[in-house]
What does this fold into?
Amino acid sequence: MVYITEDMVRRRAEHNECEIFSLEEVSLHQQDIEKIEHIDRWCRDLRILYLQNNLIPRIENVGRLKKLEYLNLALNNIEVIENLEGCESLQKLDLTVNFVGCLSSVESLKHNIHLRELFLVGNPCTEFEGYRQYVVASLPQVKWLDGTEISRSERIQASQGLDEAKRRVWEQEKEYLKRRAREKEEALRKDAGEEKGDKERKPGFDGRWYTDINTVPVLEENKENQEVEENTMSPVSDEERREREFWHTPCSFTPESRLEAHRHLEETRKAKEKEKEKKPKAPRTLITADGRVMNVNEPKLGFSLTEDEENNTIVLNLEVYRHMDTSLIDVDVQPTYARVTVKGKIFQMVLPAEVKPDSSTAQRSQTTGHLVLTMPRAEGEIKVTKTVPRRPRASQSRRSSSPEGNKRRNSVPERLEVDPSKHTAIDLANIVPRRDAKEGPLETSRLAPPAKTFSDGFVDDPDVPPLV
It folds into this structure.
């Protein structure tokens, strides 16, 4: 059973800075609440109250809400309209899909003089003959009933035949109350039978009593057939069969059946939670027994892994959520892999080369929030450099076609080719111009005098000093 607590109301009052004494609107829908309480003491200034889709059987503890203008109690287990006289400012009441069968209880709304809209769609009372005429005549202040505006002519006709409408409504109401009493008794017997279980019911395996001796062979045959069926039927299929029988078995639309469906859903949910507790999730394998590192992406984040050849580094760009706090991220860089934990979920990536963990850096982008890991390569890693391709000569192209030429070319270091016409140094070999043989000897205008030759073969060189 779920109760309305102060913590529940404060969590629904975030728009009011979690203050409940000055709260004007609160939404407590879909909380499986089974009783209205504390609201009239904690939130005196409340104007709008949402309590739809719960398990509330009675309207109570709202009489002190003098400023309440809108009350939504759709999809609950309410059978009687009551305890709303103190809601002086009530303008709209929604009781869609409840179990209001006592139609005469709408007369309690006569004191709510500001009531303008009333919704009773989906209640048993709407099937009564003269339902709309009775409500229109009983509540002259209501302008809209079940989403349809009440015209002036409809109100005049309803007031003229009010006595006859009341008589018919009361007769149908008595029949409905008798039927509801029988439904309550059946629900009590069913609950008592379920509690006693199979201990009090002692029939055979198929739910019947057998007193005739001649039926024994038949029983044995049925027992054998049942054993075969039980062996072929798995526990999962049996559970599915029971689930299908529960939802496909016809039943009357009553507060008891709605509670039973709710309990069944709760039991199914708890059973699934117990199964999860019994079978804990196996831990994910990050590193195998033989030392092999696995790639893991539990947070399912986008990423990119690139190699920066100029700086000899490996860069991992992980697309972390932009508004996630950095304290929820843990980075661990190893020589062969990088591991990032994001809100308890592991992202692990094997690196293409060995890196230096101590020199690695982790940064987050201020615009995108992405996490960038920069990991320099370890010492000894070969740094790839770009080479300029050269045009091979004709002789080399002929030799390169053979395997021996390829091998020789790989062993010889590559050198750049220089065009002989592009020399910038002075060519000393051609500094003195020479004449052709026909033109005579070399020009002697700028040269030293020739050496004298004597008869005995001595050569007098003018550059050699004379002997003393």
Q: What stands out?
A: Residues 328 and 343 are 5 Å apart (CA to CA). Residues 162-196 form the longest helix (35 residues).
